[in-house]
Amino acid sequence: MLGPMSRLKKSIPLLIAVVAATSALAQSPKLYIMDCGSVAQMNPQLYDLKAEEIKGPRGFITPCYLIVHPRGTLVWDVGQIPDANFPVDGSMAVQGSFTSTKKLLPQLAEIGYKPADNTYLALSHYHSDHTANANAFAGSTWIVQEVERTAMFAERPPPITERAHYDKLQNSKTILLKGEDKDVFGDGTVVIKYAPGHTPGHQMLFVKLSKTGPVLLAGDLFHYPEERSLDRVPSFDADREQTRRTRRAVETFLKQSGARLWIEHDWTTHEKLPKSPAFLD
User: Fold this and answer.
1) For the chain, what is the radius of gyration of the CA atoms?
2) What is the CATH number of domain 29-270?
């Protein structure tokens, strides 16, 4: 029969395993998906496609994301119509081809978060359908590729931008990336990945979820699934050949990591995903 000390020694490896598993679970982030509107049907030619080649909806969905980690929070992409531009009567906001029925900040408040308490802000890129509420997060630490930030604050801003959306970020605490990835919380569960082409400093977000598994929020690396399957690149990408190189690297990464690719604007991708206040973990 084992004595007390022998039993204790025998149980130590099991205790270590339990503690390690509990710690890993505690570090797993939560991912909230916010409704930040929709975009009217687009001209397929802009995406090097024909109308008959697009099997799903030709319009886009515009999500925003909140990642909650034990070491802080990260807001990723912040919508297409600023909350301040919604009608005062609470009705739907319309701005050109953009339509939104929900403000971003009240969606965050519903689950107990507000911009003043947010740790990090990151944008997939500078196009206006991803930056609408950026100024609300000027108190967060902004994680951005240096080449992207330089373009955003150039004397002549790039096409498809609204500098008024993000001008306050110029004075934000900033982590400048030089063509590199960023492990946001230092444990490999939330990683910003450099993915140039669509814009000079375009980024994607890898999130390793304990139950859902790893996912890759692809920003605008693709807009339609057919861009991926047919190897088509939008005519307005900053560097179309760079986009192709990035896409090839991403396919390799997906195979190595086992991550699922989420095309952020694709209705089919998002229609089955839970929306905030529900979350994925």
Assistant:
1) 21
2) 3.60.15.10
